[in-house]
Design goal:
Oligomer: heterodimer
Order of helices and strands of chain B: EEHEEHEHEH
Shape of chain B: globular
CATH class of chain B: Alpha Beta
CATH architecture of chain B: 2-Layer Sandwich
Order of helices and strands of chain A: EHHEEHEE
Strand order of the largest sheet of chain A: 1-2-3-5-4
Distance between the termini of chain B: 43 Å
Number of strands of chain A: 5
Number of domains of chain A: 1
Strand content of chain A: 25-35%
Distance between the termini of chain A: 21 Å
Number of helices of chain B: 4
Number of strands of chain B: 6
Helix content of chain A: 25-40%
Largest interface: A-B, 29 and 28 residues
Largest sheet of chain B: 6 strands, mixed
Shape of chain A: globular
Radius of gyration of chain B: 13 Å
CATH topology of chain A: Heat Shock Protein 90
Structural class of chain A: alpha+beta
CATH topology of chain B: Transcription Regulator spoIIAA
CATH superfamily of chain B: STAS domain
CATH class of chain A: Alpha Beta
CATH architecture of chain A: 2-Layer Sandwich
Helix content of chain B: 25-40%
Structural class of chain B: alpha/beta
């Protein structure tokens, strides 16, 4: 296995696991421990799910291309899609994970939970948008 | 790719219904969990114990289904209690900051008996 590889899936929820496995296998190969591999896999899962849900607005509207890159310092996942502009950074955390907030089931707003996971599981998240290329999400996990 | 990655079984009980979830819960199948829990609560079984010991993986989609069930159950003066969560489930609950919302027990029996 090299230090960079690409996989393209159709934008269906039952395809996301394929990307997760593709990324998790590479992360394991790169020397990340089991817990960190799980974190990388979960961040990737949440990002792909958000692309289908928000950028494409549903299943079967376009593809997702995943690229992983490994070097001794970091493991990077890049996700491309051609959906509408969707910047995860613009999404607020769910209400119940805000500091000093008393959780109340009646007031729970769970939207944004996936992005909250991505922010907390990865060391860096960058977003780019290009009218021709679409959305590009870059997530980096440092290797300690 | 069409086979489900999760198995959900329901065991009726006098104090509470036990819902055992096994496998991987993600965006491809969280609606199965959501539908099962919603149906139970609609049918008046609003005291639920979720046995989550054998969940190998859960994304936020699974959490949404559980939170949604908690909200519905509480509205009917019931509750959703967690029994013996796997390490992965505990990590995901921690990450979401959801632990204060749920009563969690080490085993199913204790969780069931916590309902009076």
């Amino acid at each position: 296995m090299g230090n960079k590889n690409t996989l393209t899936i159709t934008g269906h929820y039952n395809q996301v696991k394929q990307v997760c496995e593709f990324v998790a296998a590479a992360a394991q190969q790169a020397g990340l421990d089991d817990n960190t591999v799980f974190q990388v896999e979960l961040a990737c899962d949440e990002a792909c799910t958000n692309i289908i849900e928000h950028a494409y607005g549903g299943e079967g509207k376009g593809n997702i291309t995943a690229i992983w890159e490994a070097n001794p310092q970091s493991f990077t996942i890049t996700l491309h899609d051609n959906g509408r502009r969707f910047n995860p950074d613009a999404v607020e955390d769910p209400t119940f994970v805000k500091p000093n907030t008393t959780p109340n089931p009646d007031e729970l707003k769970v939207g944004g939970l996936g992005i909250h996971f991505m922010r907390n599981l990865m060391n860096e998240i960058r977003y780019e948008f290009d009218k021709k290329q679409g959305n590009t999400l870059i997530m980096v996990k440092y290797i300690e | 790719m069409s086979e489900s990655l999760v198995t959900i079984s329901v065991q009726p009980g006098e104090k509470a219904y036990i819902v055992t979830v096994v496998g991987r819960v993600d965006s491809s199948n969280a609606n199965e969990l959501d539908t099962t829990l919603a149906q139970l609560i609609d049918d008046g079984h609003n005291k639920l114990v979720l046995e989550l010991t054998e969940i190998s993986y859960m994304s936020s989609a699974g959490l949404r289904a559980i939170v949604s069930a908690l909200r519905s159950a509480k509205k009917k003066r019931g509750d959703v209690r967690i029994a013996a969560p796997s390490e992965r489930v505990s990590e995901v609950f921690d990450l979401a900051g959801l632990n204060p919302l749920f009563n969690t027990f080490d085993d199913v029996e204790t969780a069931v008996n916590s309902f009076n």
